[in-house]
Amino acid sequence: MSSLFTLGSLIVGVPAGVFTTISGSQLISASQNPSFLTYFLTVPQVVRETYVTQIIKVNSNSETIIQNVPDEMATEIPRTMLLGFSNNNSVIKRLNKKKWKKQQVELFFDVIAVEGSTTELGGVNNLSSSVLQGFTCTTVRTVKKVQIKKLIKACRRRGNNKVLLAETQLTCMYNYIKADSDVTSFDLYPPDVLLYYDYTLVPRASCRSYFEQLADADFSVFSSALSYKRTALFNNARSCLGITNTSLTKDDIMVLGNMCCTLDGSYIENSDSSILEKLNNCPDLNDGQASAVQTLLLSGKTQYGVPSTWNEQTLQDLGMLPLYMKSAFYDNFDKKTKRRFLKFFLKVLKKNGVGRRKKRMLKREIRKSIRNKAKRSIVNECTVGTITQVTISDDTFPFDYDDINQFNCCLSAATVQENLDAITTKVDQEEYLMIVLSKLQEAYAASSTIPEDQVQLLGPASRLATVDNINTWSITQIDTLSSLMDSSNGEWDPSLARAIISKYLSVAGNKLGSTELNTIGGANLCSLDVNVLKNISQQSLKEANALTVSNCTIEKKKELFNIAEQAFSGSTRATATLSSYQLTKTYLEGASLEYIKSLVSLNVSMDMAIFTSLQENVVLNLTVNEVKDLLGTNLPELKSYENETLVQTWVRSQLQSELDTLGIGINGGRANPTTTTKSPSTTTSTSSSTSTTTAGSGSSSSTTSTTTGNGTRIRADAGLSLLAVLALLIMSQHIVV
């Protein structure tokens, strides 16, 4: 064990299997060494997971586990090991110190979020952002309303401390605060929660204040189902700020803030140039937005001046915007400037966690701008310079090989074999990676097998392989499978993912254990045949992360749910069944009607994202009352999702009178059957008109009329009843016309 301490940064190369031979007690001692821990946190995820698994074997008691596992490695603790915590002061403080995944903290949030626990920590504001991400309608079902409001306000954090919340968490929060007197004190709540406000409740005099606070929200959080709310927000902002055209002033832009990330190109091109500062903070720009930014910059009407005055400092001052520019933009810089900037910018992109796809696009456009001014090589010999280890060590490699033919001619199979890791770390463009892959195959042509240590270094080049290529790879170790499944290198074609996983499983002793399931992930797991999935043991699924199985066929979803249902069935009905729901919810797309009905009485407050992912035949067999009890606090969101096909189909199958009992304005149900000739009592219909755009129906309108009650339908029923009475009267009197 002492030898591991001497490895320093080299520990990153130690295979996961080595740690299975070291006792958990030794690993607990090792993790108390700050220097060792710093280096160890850089190892692949599969190695960290193996390390934690060994520690858990020492003592599987939940409270002992969180004591033994280092804070930064708590994300590797299986979810089922995070149940049954006491509200002991030391336990609460330990939980609050650790780094968690959302799927983990949801399982104990109800323990740490209650008033008694937060008091021990000095108040809700001392809850870590890692813990606060566990807020859901399910996890706060037993927490007092006053405390829930405090938790919501505690989530108002910025920068690196921002609490990352999904849409279903945000809508849940809004449903808890919407009736409160301080709901229009917009600066009390997380900006992302404001995205889901009912704008008709925002006082006209306060609308600017509302949008000023909304400026810090993440507008990319909207799901496709609720994206219409994003459109409605901008329409309402235009009305509030008096925007009548596509020319936004500096003041408009300041108020809109992050909403600028949702604007189309016409606004970007015609607005004050300060809009570039806002767009620089956007998580992404679409092609239309990027094109508009480039047009605005090339116009010379920005603080960056005309293109002829641009230099390397200009590129640096543009922040992240160069990531989206096309070759026509880079034509304004000479090759040396582009090289120096690329060296600088690649470090910025790495620090910001920018993925390979975007870096690939950047390099392609820069390369294209260089090729536009140079003749393409037609010779089949290296004229730029042979690629060596020194060449590859340059931060901008393969910048000088903008001609693909030169890259091919100057790169030898031996160089690829000896420097594969360095090459695949720096090369992003697919056409270049194809050459790297071909050279590697050439290097091992004699043996027809690429060794395991080389396969682990393929990185993004692996995504360009064929099934025939994969058949030449040695894939026997979990480390190899893990490196191939690394999502940062891009998505896998299902047929290729299946070939890789099948090759691994063909090795004696290899199976779909929890480590393999975590390594493969839900999307790639769906590439396997259902007969293979049936071999997953309950224990393996129980100890695995929550897997997303949306890509699976319904047959595969059902199989995975059946395994999950058995794996997570608890021993004590009172709490384990609810815990079972939380542990099983990512597999509910394959759930049976019987299981879903069993949740009705458990106060689970199922969110609409899960509800709309259920099988159609399951949803259509749920009554209005069952849906009401199933959704719980999330019931108001049924109205927000009313334009979703599944919701519409369910609504049409219900009696309108029963839908009315929900009190959320859902219409479109079946008319009540006429069972009596008695005239109904008169119902008064009232209507109100507003000048705002509402998001409730999924469409925008400058004037919205709302009708309360069911006056129109009732009057129609009354007319039919009158006709029936008249017909009976005529028949009884034998009137002849």
UniProtKB/TrEMBL annotation:
Pfam families, A to Z: Mesothelin
Q: Which InterPro entries match?
A: Mesothelin, Stereocilin-rel
Keyword flag ATP-binding: no
Q: Which GO terms describe its cellular component?
A: cell surface; membrane
User: Is Chloroplast a UniProt keyword of this protein?
Assistant: no
Protein name per Swiss-Prot or TrEMBL: Mesothelin a
**Record's signal peptide:** 1-16
